[in-house]
Specification:
This protein has helices at residues 7-12, 27-34, 82-92, 124-144, and strands spanning 4-5, 13-23, 38-39, 44-48, 51-55, 58-59, 76-79, 97-106, 112-121. The strands form 2 sheets. Strands 1-8-9-2-7-5-4 form a 7-stranded antiparallel beta sheet. A two-stranded antiparallel ribbon has the order 3-6. By secondary structure, the chain is an alpha+beta fold. The chain has a single domain (4-144), classed as Small Protein B, Chain: A, CATH 2.40.280.10.
């Protein structure tokens, strides 16, 4: 099972709250995801009409697909409970919050899930602090081994 992570998101944002959402996918998209063929570059989520959509999530076309193959950059609807969507909507109205995809994985029932996060953008000095902290943790681990 492939798990795809959006590493750039953790570098560019402070993640406050995470949500696990189902995705409305086509069969060829699921097969591509099982092969680990997706990219988070420039992808984001938005709330439109009481629904959450993920935009610009690139899922490569399935190599053995026929004429029924999917469009790699199509918009995909996310499946969340109404109260979660309302909670996300109210947080997005606050200044500085955005909704970004964090990882794609398959749960115990073999359903494709997308983990999304409510995030605030980092400033340049925040990014430097994060890098410094990761380096320090790496040094401590190396020393303890």
């Amino acid at each position: 099972m492939a798990e795809l992570k959006n590493r750039q998101a953790y570098h560019d944002y402070f993640i406050d709250t995470k949500f696990e959402a189902g995705m409305m996918l086509l069969g060829t998209e699921v097969k591509s995801l099982r092969g680990g063929r997706a990219s988070f570059n420039d992808s984001y989520c938005l709330v439109h009409g009481g629904e959450i959509w993920v935009k610009s999530l690139h899922i490569t076309q399935y190599s053995h697909g026929t004429v029924n193959n999917h469009d790699p950059l199509r918009d995909r609807k996310l499946l969340l409970e109404k109260r979660e969507i309302r909670k996300i909507e109210t947080r997005l109205k606050e200044k500085g919050y955005t909704l970004i995809p964090l990882r794609i994985f398959f749960n115990s029932k073999n359903l494709a899930k997308l983990e999304i996060g409510l995030a605030r953008g980092k400033k340049l000095h925040d990014k430097r602090d994060s890098i410094r902290q990761k380096d320090a943790e790496r040094e401590i681990k190396r020393f303890l081994k």
